[in-house]
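Re: your question about HTH CENPB-type domain-containing protein

S., sorry for the slow reply, the queue was backed up all week. Below is exactly what I fed in.
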Amino acid sequence: MATIREELIQLAITNIQQGLCSIRSAAEKYSVPSSTLSDRLHGSQPQRQAKTHNQRLSPVQEEFVVDWCLNEEKSGRAPSRSQVVGFAQAILAEGGDRQPLGARWIDRFLRRHNAVKTKKSALLESSRTKDSTREAYQAFYRRLEFHIRDKNIIPANIANVDEHGMQEMETTAGTVIGSSLTRRAYTTSSDTTTWVTVIECGTVEGVRLSPTIVFTGASLQGQWFPPKAELEVDFLDWKFDYSLTGWSNSQIALKWLKEVYLPQTQPQGDEWRLLILDEHSSHTTGDFMATAWLNKVQLVYLPAHTSHKTQLLDRSVFSALKSYFRQATKALASFTASAAINKRRFLHCYRDTSKLGMSARNIISGFRNTGIWPLDPSKVLDDPEAVLESQALPVRPKTPPPEPRTEFWTPQKSQDIRTHQQGVSEGMEASGRLTRTLLAKAGKALDAKNAEMASLKAQVDHLTKELESHEPQGRKRVKENANDKFTRIEDIIQAKEDSMKSPKKKKKKTQQDSQEVKEAEEIIVDAVEPGGDGGAKCPIVGCVRLWGLVV
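Result:
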């Protein structure tokens, strides 16, 4: 937007062009240089407009960022300076520019656009409306209704996404049938505690998008998956990924948005879509929000700590799905199996039970029960278990300013350094000695920080090497796409076939093992055939060889 000076220049030019005054009189009237008016009349451009080619973002892109900031504020989540920078860098990355923006870019951006500015956020209102309060629910439904009407979003373009986690062979206790002579029956639970995260998404019309399975591990292994015939039929459109914790992260969330949600919910025309999701950190990154906005996807975040009432997948889908899943794994809990077999069992059980839990009926029921569609806030606001009346917050006492310190202490942050410098500059006695003391203590703090950083780097290096030592050996890792996308089902099939062909590695024989086996062979040979010739035919020796002690 134009500055006050630019507006005065435009008024002066208008008066000159209309013949109301000369260049000199217009310059005096509006307090602008006559040379500037003369240059403008001869076709020169304003300084900012003339230098737009030097800006990282074009004017159109910057207006796009401005619109996004205003839209986010209307949604109740005005972005911070760092989030705006992250959003702008995500736009640049779409064009192949991955260089970071300058440290002063955000300040210049705000000076160029008067429609947005920095201001303090109202934390008190956020505190009053957090958790399950009537104000929090009302604000959520108001935002939802505003975006649906403002962008003319049709029901078919409304979807909800959520992650849920479970153990690979998760089981639970329940009602069983047994002997009438005892009051309680004990059932076996699985020892497998490896975590798996599943990302599920459903639309208002009851359409289920492709699920995304996130295994715990350092890579995907071919032996984790069922045979090729099953993969090509039952898991062809499923997405698979991994993380060291088994939880989703920002990279997985972004891949899900690009490879699952956007292509599978593509509208017929140039229509807006609406995606309802929680405020997990992986959903609030600059890349995630920018990708959604660039593809005309309006994100609506659920109020914090209200998913038990507003997250429709939690209410009507996941509870039923997990119940079916635990019933399916109950019969397998007593079987001890390898990690690969447990993962295949998980896929089989989840394939069968998710068809029941993620049914169209359950998804549509979830939208209706939460009042998201048809839009009906009373579904939640009239629930006495869901809504808590907000309470007046106690007045926070003002913290008195700290008393000025006259002695020197080891600085821990830059503010401490400035405090010391101020004390020296105000004419404290023996300023030379005090300055030396200040520098010595500053050096001490820096040395301590450097030592701490070196120690942390050493710990990271040690943990990295330890992690590498635990990587599985002799297995077939699934080939990953160089574009950092979800692994293709064709690569999983190839790794599965390769893992079935790869021979098992023999245990490395040590010198001590060789000596012990040699003595054992001599004893066994002497016991079976004193002459020693029958040792090679001895079945016991054959067993020893089979166990891997003899190579």
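Residues 1-52 form one domain. The chain has a mean pLDDT of 77.

Happy to talk it through on Thursday.
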